[in-house]
Design brief:
The complex is a heterodimer of chains A (244) and B (562). Chain A is an alpha/beta fold and 244 residues long. Chain A has helices at 40-47, 69-74, 91-101, 108-117, 133-145, 163-178, 190-196, 214-220, 228-236, 238-243, and strands at 2-11, 14-24, 29-33, 55-60, 63-64, 76-79, 151-155, 182-186, 199-204, 207-212. Classes of the chains: A alpha/beta (244), B mainly alpha (562).
Chain lengths: 244, 562
């Protein structure tokens, strides 16, 4: 469902993402991990069509995000790491605006349903500027699901969410995956990856250094039966820092 | 306390150290513009003061009275500007959260914020006031003592309004939450500015540069009895400067001491007020607001009505933009300014003494109507730089919503164009039709100017949207920062060039037709061909003015890292 081929992004002298190749299937929850500045957000922004790759392609479903951007974006839902939304709109207005962008007609019931699902109904007529970070994050998620995307691209989904919100999001992602939606998610919360992701890729300094199931990564790091945290630190060189 | 100002110092240093290749040209260009304005201010002051000095007995008195008036205006502007700035520096600035979380004494925060407020709100008045004060020194052939006295006067003269502004702000925020106080201030400020603008316009300041009207001005100034209260710091400043101008010490020292003691006292009182009420106000400033008026049922009806001519995604964009515009006080309140602009513009035409002109009046009226075309173009561009140029930048950090949606950037840009076009066409139409009625122009000229202005409005709008995309500013603290940047200046220059070209291309054929009609001359076929070619070129230029900026803007937005 998501196919990255030699995807590369170079900023001046810095290679942020270096010829990465990934293939994520339908209904898969795919974890995308890496230390700060490794190239996660750059990759995600290229997949969502917000950033043009220097080289390589990203194909969503059957559409190349650069050449068939409109079709690719029509089947993708994007949730950024920072939920910037128009402050002067209410949640309902923002949802209706999003519905128009995706050419959805008669989305009223679905909007109410999603606002209910994300616990925002009591606040739906309040201006977004009065929302907390977590509420904005939930609103962005609700809007990303409005057009029933086949692919969900998520950058740091749990930042700012309370435990109940985090649990809700986990349940929703699992439910979506069971219905065949592909979830591509970058996160620093390794327990979530362990609980939810069927496969994981680790990016470090722009390169994919490992990919596979959590068990596969454990074998690569020679740390079978270990939790993901020590495996991640071993593979990214973070354990040396801790030991020293 | 000084260490708290370090981030600003580093920010300036880093900005200077990291200048990009184009930045030098930008700075030089803006510097030249500033210098031009500086020279203009000096020139006008010099001319008026030189004239005053030629009036026996009364001249010096008039010059000093003018100085007091200038100082009163500066003082009121400074107090207002300090209140607005203090709201940002003391209550709304992003770094405050970090500052309040650290073990810094309240006094240190107060002192550093005082310096920040003082510098931010005074530098412009200082820079543009200097040529006036220097012109006084030059015309009065003042000794070096005047310039030393000037420096010693200006410093407390700037500190006093800063002190007053900060204290007033703290009291205001304790009465209303800071964000609401900001809205109220923005509105009051605009009404204040609008009133000043209309008042100044009705006083016809252009007479200052017309020597024929100087005697009336003198009468006017003489007739104004004691416009300045002796309790105002501007009075003390005038009283400390005037003896130095005349070359005698007089009471300069006394008034200088008045200024300094008041300035220092205000710093201390401000600190005392700050320690008592600042923290409480800052805490309140973070509280949420109730829904504004723009969320009423009537407002909803209005929004639906405004967006009703549009369909689908275009309608969604227009509806969103209109809602955001009317829910942001700093945006919609500028409409007052627009009304003031229209009133003053049309009023100026009503005042034109056309019947007293030497030339055949029908010829002159049409000539002026032609110049009016250019002026309307200018007014529409000035409105567009404020409302259309920022259209793309206003998406701000929420632009990801558009970019990740299946709405193409081309559709998005044309939506911005169409939603801005209609209000501008209405504005241009009102201005040109009413001013032409006042001018009593011929039906031919009326038709031509209405058609030209409407056509030009398409170009002016496209230039605004297009160049706004070439120079986007998605991260801004205040909407007003967007049009006042380098891009805004470039937009105004290109818009002027465009309007000028259209006017020149139309002026020649219209002149030929008029002279032929007035003096009964025959226009040969070759003449008609040239006339038609000229009008055709106008159409081509207008088309280019629409398509080219939109194309360039789109390309810029599509660039990899825009």
């Amino acid at each position: 469902m998501i196919k990255l081929t030699n995807l590369t992004k170079i900023y001046g002298k810095l290679t942020a993402v270096n010829h990465i190749n990934l293939d994520v299937g339908s209904g898969e929850i795919f974890g995308f991990l890496g230390p700060n500045g490794a190239g996660k957000t750059t990759t995600i922004r290229m997949i969502a069509g917000l950033l043009q790759p220097t080289e390589g392609t990203a194909v969503i479903g059957e559409y190349d995000i650069q050449r068939e951007a409109i079709q690719a974006k029509a089947i993708t839902g994007f949730i950024p790491d920072r939920p910037y939304i128009y402050d002067k709109l209410t949640a309902t207005e923002f949802m209706h605006f999003t519905a128009s962008l995706y050419d959805l007609t008669d989305a009223k019931n679905r909007i109410i349903g999603l606002l209910e699902l994300f616990g925002l109904v009591d606040w739906m007529d309040e201006l977004v500027e009065n929302y907390s970070h977590g509420m904005k994050q939930r609103l962005v998620m609700a809007s990303a699901l409005l057009h029933e995307p086949r692919v969900l691209v998520v950058d740091e989904p749990m930042v700012g969410l309370d435990p109940r919100g985090a649990r809700l999001v986990k349940d929703i992602f699992k439910d979506l995956a069971s219905k065949g939606v592909t979830v591509f998610m970058s996160t620093h919360t390794l327990e979530i990856v362990e609980q939810m992701c069927s496969r994981v890729a680790i990016i470090n300094q722009g390169n994919i250094i490992a990919q596979g199931s959590v068990q596969d990564l454990g074998r690569m790091a020679r740390m079978q039966d270990s939790h993901l945290e020590p495996i991640f630190l071993r593979l990214t060189g973070g354990d040396e820092v801790l030991d020293s | 306390m000084l260490f708290l100002l370090a981030p600003r110092k580093y920010a300036i240093k880093n900005r200077l150290h990291r200048l990009k290749p184009g930045d030098g040209v930008k700075t030089a260009f803006l510097g030249l513009l500033g210098l031009g304005f500086w020279a203009f201010m000096f020139g006008i002051s010099f001319r008026v003061l030189t004239y005053f000095r030629t009036i026996e007995g009364l001249g010096d008195l008039l010059a000093i009275r003018l100085l007091s008036m200038i100082l009163v205006v500066f003082f009121s502007v400074l107090v207002f500007s300090n209140i607005v700035t203090a709201l940002s520096t003391f209550y709304l600035s992003g770094e405050l959260e970090i500052l309040h979380a650290t073990p810094i004494h309240g006094e240190d925060i107060y002192r550093s914020k005082f310096v920040e407020t003082l510098v931010d709100s005074s530098w412009m008045v200082l820079i543009y006031g200097l040529p006036v004060f220097i012109a006084y020194g030059v015309v009065f052939k003042a000794a070096a003592g005047y310039y030393v006295g000037l420096a010693l006067t200006v410093v407390p003269f700037l500190i006093i309004p800063a002190g007053i502004g900060i204290i007033v702000t703290m009291l205001l925020v304790n009465a209303f939450p800071a964000r609401r106080a900001k809205d109220i201030l923005v509105l009051l400020g605009l009404l204040f500015f609008m009133a000043m603008y209309i008042l100044l316009r009705l006083l016809q300041p252009e007479k200052l540069v017309d020597p024929d009207t100087f005697p009336t001005l003198v009468q006017y100034l003489t007739a104004m009895r004691g416009p300045v209260s002796p309790l105002l710091p501007s009075f003390w400043a005038a009283k400390s400067l005037s003896p130095l101008l005349r070359g005698n010490g007089g009471d300069a020292l006394f008034y200088l001491l008045m200024l300094w003691s008041t300035a220092l006292a205000l710093i201390v009182i401000g600190e005392w007020v700050c320690m008592k009420i600042y923290y409480r106000g800052w805490s309140r400033s973070q509280e949420g607001r109730k829904a504004p008026l723009s969320r009423s049922r009537a407002a909803d009806l209005f929004f639906t009505l405004v967006s009703s001519p549009f369909r689908g995604r275009l309608r969604a964009i227009v509806l969103k933009d209109v809602k955001i515009f009317f829910r942001n006080t700093s945006q919609w309140s500028q409409l007052f300014l627009l009304v003031a602009l229209i009133v003053v513009y049309l009023y100026s035409f009503k005042l034109l003494p056309l019947e007293r002109a030497a030339m055949p009046s029908f010829f002159l009226q049409n000539l002026i109507s032609f110049l009016n075309l250019g002026m309307v173009g200018f007014v529409v561009s000035a409105v567009a730089v404020r409302f259309v140029f920022p259209a793309v930048s206003l998406e701000g950090e929420s632009f990801w919503i558009i970019r990740s949606s299946p709405l193409s950037l081309k559709q998005f840009l044309w939506a911005k164009f169409l939603s801005s076009l209609l209000p501008l066409v209405i504005l241009a139409g009102i201005l040109i039709v009413i001013s032409n009625i006042f001018l009593r122009v011929t039906p031919f000229m009326m038709t031509l100017s209405v058609m030209t202005v409407i056509m030009m409005t398409f170009g002016i709008t496209a230039l605004g949207v297009g160049l706004g995309s070439v120079f986007p500013r998605f991260r801004y603290e205040n909407v007003a920062q967007i049009p006042t940047g380098f891009g805004g200046i470039i937009y105004m220059l290109i818009a002027m060039l465009f309007i000028g070209t259209v006017i020149i291309l139309e002026a020649w054929p219209v002149y030929r037709i008029f002279t032929a009609q007035t003096f009964g001359r025959h226009i040969p076929d070759s003449g008609w061909v040239a006339i038609v070619m000229s009008f055709a070129l106008v159409v081509v230029i207008n088309l280019l003015a629409v398509l080219l900026p939109m194309h360039v803007g789109l390309r810029r937005l599509r660039e990899p890292d825009s």
